[in-house]
Structures are given as structure tokens and as C-alpha cells.
Amino acid sequence: MTSPIEDTILSQLAELPAGKSIDPSAVAKAVDPEGWRRMLPQVRSTAVGLARIGKLVITRHGKPADPDSFKGVYRLRLPT
Questions:
Q1: Cα separations (Å) of 30 from 37, 55, 56, 61, 71?
Q2: Per residue in 38-65, pLDDT tens?
Q3: Based on the structure, what is the number of domains in the chain?
Q4: In whole angstroms, what is the distance from residue 55 CA to residue 49 CA?
Q5: DSSP letter string over 20-80?
Q6: Are 25 and 39 in contact (CB under 8 A)?
Q7: What are the tens digits of pLDDT across the range 61-79?
Q8: Alpha carbons within 13 A on the beta-carbon side of 48
Q9: What is the model's pTM?
């Protein structure tokens, strides 16, 4: 069973050209336009889970980041 956050991440990524990434805040805004800031920790934890199973890549400064130890600003993209 998937969550609305997971569905939104994967659908936004599917719409992009190969190698392009999305901002996690765009996912949060799509799920909850009014309370998107409260959604950011859930988006992050969902992204980490998807990265661990290989469904997406978390990037920092355009390079893949370790889903278990990254900090700061990040983006999401599909594996290449």
C-alpha cells in the first residue's frame, strides 16, 4: 500500500525528462497546499525509504547522497 506522499513523489518524477530532479517542497505543496511546511519531514522520510529500495535517488549539489546520512538541502530524481 502506498501513501499519498509516495504517489506524489513518483508521479512528479515520472513526468520529468531523464536525469531531472524535483524539490521536496513541491511534493509537500501538492499533498497539502495549506500546511506544506508540516509535510516536509514526512516527505523526507518517505524519500529516504524509497531511496533505500532503489526507487529514487536523493541528491545534494547534483550528486547522489547516502539516504542514511545526508543533511541539508536535497532534491529527488529517478535512478539513471
A1: 11, 20, 18, 24, 23
A2: 999 999 999 999 999 999 999 999 999 9
A3: 1
A4: 9
A5: -EE-HHHHHHHH-SSSHHHHHHHHHHHHHHHHHTTS-EEEETTEE--TTT--SS-EEE---
A6: no
A7: 999 999 999 999 999 999 9
A8: 12
A9: 0.93
